[in-house]
Amino acid sequence: MILYGRNPVRESLRGKRSVSRVWATGSALATEPWLVEAPSTAEVAGPALEELCGTRDHQGVCAEVGEYPYSDADAFWDADDALVLVLDEIQDVQNLGAVCRVAESAGLAGVVIPRRRAAEVTPAACKASAGAVEHIDIARVRNVADWLGQAKEREAWVYGAATGSGSVPYTDPNYRGRVALVLGSEGRGLRPRVAAACDQLVALPQRGRLDSLNVSTATAALVYGILQSRRQGLDKGP
User: Fold this and answer.
1) Mind listing the pLDDT tens digit for each residue in 131-186?
2) Closest Cα partner for 24 from 123, 15, 37?
3) Side by side, which strands form the sheet with 138-141?
4) 232 pLDDT exceeds 90?
5) CB of 158 closer than 8 Å to CB of 198
6) Mean pLDDT throughout 224-231?
């Protein structure tokens, strides 16, 4: 796999997968001191980099790395207060990357995605995450609804982000203990069986004319809302 961009390459060198070689333009070598310590760094011209990674969006750096090491989703519940993000068939790798950037920044236990019919961790997702995928644990599961059922057996509460009459304001739950936050795909939202697997559906306030937010924006608002709720120790009943 060929990663491209300053942040994805730099974070891959500090992350969990092997980096076999790095290519950089002369200008990148002059302005990015960390490249000097990178393994097997070779100076190449910009057109050669574009040919290597297949895009002009390389920022003067690309690297050959190992396949992405997906994690074990069940291990995410080791902590009693684990907060896990579950993505139900997100299709756009840009959205996947942006969501993973939020998850890593917020210190979540991990991100769960389906094995099929969903975006995977590609170089474009790495670029969109600014290298965050190299640090956040991401797991793939065969069936999201079934896995959420297993999460409940680990005493996790499952909250799905959805608009509509069946949802409550996202500020209503207390989010104590193990929590899975589920977000649906672009346009379609949560699939019916996944929504049915949730203990409660929660919604952000919509005060404008649009009826939804981009999935990464919604993720950021909900995740930091949950963290704020936990920090304040809100007690809203059982």
Assistant:
1) 999 999 999 999 999 999 999 999 999 999 987 778 899 999 999 999 999 999 88
2) 37
3) 138-141, 110-114, 83-88, 178-184, 156-161, 200-203, 167-169
4) no
5) yes
6) 91
Query: Are the C-beta atoms of residues 141 and 197 closer than 8 Å to each other?
Result: no
DSSP state of 31: H
Using CA atoms, how far residue 110 sits from 39, 82, 90, 115, 139, in Å, is 29, 9, 16, 16, 8
Q: Which two tokens stand for residue 25?
A: 């333009």
Rounded Cα–Cα distance for residues 188 and 212 (Å): 11
- Residue 159 CB contacts under 8 Å (≥ 6 apart), including other chains: 173, 175, 179, 180, 181, 182, 198, 199, 200, 201, 202
Residue 15 is encoded by which pair of tokens?
């992350």
Backbone angles phi, psi at 167, to 5 degrees: -100, 155
pTM check: above 0.85: yes
DSSP-based three-state secondary structure for 81: coil
